[in-house]
UniProtKB/TrEMBL annotation:
<keyword id="KW-0808">Transferase</keyword>
<dbReference type="InterPro" id="IPR012665">
    <property type="entry name" value="Trehalose_synth"/>
</dbReference>
<keyword id="KW-0413">Isomerase</keyword>
<protein>
    <submittedName>
        <fullName>Maltose alpha-D-glucosyltransferase</fullName>
        <ecNumber>5.4.99.16</ecNumber>
    </submittedName>
</protein>
<feature type="region of interest" description="Disordered">
    <location>
        <begin position="1"/>
        <end position="67"/>
    </location>
</feature>
<dbReference type="GO" id="GO:0016740">
    <property type="term" value="F:transferase activity"/>
</dbReference>
<feature type="compositionally biased region" description="Basic and acidic residues">
    <location>
        <begin position="10"/>
        <end position="20"/>
    </location>
</feature>
<feature type="compositionally biased region" description="Basic residues">
    <location>
        <begin position="38"/>
        <end position="47"/>
    </location>
</feature>
<dbReference type="GO" id="GO:0047471">
    <property type="term" value="F:maltose alpha-D-glucosyltransferase activity"/>
</dbReference>
<dbReference type="InterPro" id="IPR017853">
    <property type="entry name" value="GH"/>
</dbReference>
Amino acid sequence: MGLSTASRADQQEEPDRMTDEPDIEPIEITYDEDRYPARPRKLRPRTNMRTSNIRRSFSDPRSADASNPSYVEWLIRQSMLRDAEILGRGLSGQPSMWRHPYARPDARRAIGVASVWFTAYPISLITGSQSYLAALGDDALWDAFEKIGITAVHTGPVKLAGGITGWSSTASVDGHFDRISTQIDPAFGSDDDFRQLSDVADNHGGSVIDDIVPGHTGKGADFRLAEMGYKDYPGIYHMIEIPEEDWHELPPVPEHRDSVNLDAATEKRLADLGYIIGQLQRVIFYSPGTKETNWSVTAPVLGADGKTRRWVYLHYFKQGQPSINWLDPTFAGMRLVIGDALHSLGDLGSSALRLDANGFLGVEKSAEGSPAWSEGHPLSEAANHLIAGMVRKVGGFSFQELNLTMEDIRDTGRVGADLSYDFINRPAYQHALAMADTEFLRLTLRTSLSTGVQPVGLVHALQNHDELTYELVHWATLHRADLYPFRDEEVPGAQLAETIRADLVEKLTGDAADYNLVFTTNGIACTTASVIAATQGLTTLDAITDGHIDDIREAHLLLVMFNAWQPGVFALSAWDLLGMLPLPSSEVSELIAEGDTRWVHRGAHDLMDVDPDATMSTSGMPRGRSLYGSLPQQLEQDDSFATRVSQILKIRTEIGLDIGTQLDIPDVAHPGMLVMVHRLDGGDATLEDAPLQVTVLNFTGEEIEGTVRSAELTPRRTVYDAVTGEEIGRVDDLQSFTVKLAPYAGLCLLGRDSDDEDPSTSTETAV
């Protein structure tokens, strides 16, 4: 990309941060579970003082606060803001910064780079003797990916995360999304491992996608320096110094804590006093007694100027994830985020970045008595424009995980990230499968089209490390009072969202399936295979036998067809490729004790049979049960899940469906049927004679027959199966044709003139 030489050279001029004085020696410390959420044992400090990876100084007995210049310097050399300044100086004025267009998002260009993604999760991959990143960069794995049709790997967050307390490191509180450094976490490998992964991917025609988190950091060196009031560092965060005369308004902080969450009453008092803007539009991860507001207060902290301060700071997510301030006069937060992005793209060799938590970058006081404006704020759009523009300027692309309204996704997509995660249709297709009825799915697809969100701009995914999100923000917030047709009546958006959530909870959890667990108010902890098992009446993990695998696999392939046989990126994880089931709750009881049930669906897995006898990953996640077997096993079988996925993806690529345009979601003859009509125009709307493609799916476990009718169809054209070449029927003068579908079956259909006999030699035309 032309960036790595400059950035590496500048970094080499700086001493290794972990060898700067004072020397830090490894030692174990304990910490209170109340402070650090449950996580696998190997990712958190043990109580044995002599075997920990926690780092503390014995050679320098001086205090770990602002009174010690060596401690302050040690923090500075670990800070992301300092790294960003070095990277910026190294890249400024270089010709590589001017070689690429950057003003406008380009989803189709991004898809041309990476159309099918494998989404990895660091702590769950069984890697044998290799590091996580080295395992992802293994040639044999990429040979398998090539056979399947996977063209990119999203690594997940792999840089150092968590926090610093004194001289000691503390564990991540949110799966490494609380980043504190530009360095790779040694638990996952090294910077060189990442660069090697990028090179191997390139050799196989693939690419690597990394992460940045523009919404928050962890409580690392940058936050500790901010607490000290040191130079520009307070400007990184939404943090407000509370004068000592008003400390009586603040709750006390226990000795073993560095901050406590504000309750609603204190939040209101501080807002009334003019210190903070108070209540936000919602409290993400709300938990009584733990997180009741989006604000926390620090204990007294000695500053670099000798003054002791207490700060109230904003965190949209967990207390250990202080939010970044994108409109502070120092622009320190912006500098930090841009520096992190350039490091990933220029120095590590990634081709793209996920923008995590990027919908919450602006917050503003609202009218008296109303929550602050914190979602869909124009500052978020402006910040995303800057980030995405910088990424494109150096030749990369970006995608966002923006679980907001369709209007927000549309508007940010006009100037910001090239692609957006499909939070719109994922709960809808799960609902269609659970209810054997596609009515809500058809509604979401149509609403997306009418709002101006084309599927080509979305990342259509199966399972990832998070829960099945069913917040249905579009209907539950902005459109809560709008009426929508559903089940033969007009219902308000808020009621529609409530009904869908209730359906999913009833059909997928509790008595229906005790292995799928509700996760706070956000969604359901499950795997794709366990969702399917629940819809097929399997109420316990023990009830799922080898005799059920074929039916589960067929429904799983149906969901692959839905996501892959429409324009946009298709993404799947190892949990999908291997058909993983959730872990029994008893195996992760400590991890889910505080309510984070997502750990049940993050079971360890072995993609390549590198360690068949392993019972857990290197990070300590218990091994889950695979229904389909490893990739080497599957790729030797003609009817395996992975082999059939490769067939689905092959036709998608051959006809250019991934960069097409969606035209119509017509009514259907059977409630379990779904029809999507696409134009294979590569995004060129002037191609009036571009061929059409029709995806027809059966979301039921029964054979169905029905008529496909759309105003987009051309009468008197023969319709054939793009996969098999088999003739399906002929479009009549009413612009319709009839299909039969086996249980959980799907068809990818194209058309040709009726006098063309051989589809392999004919020119495709509009259906």
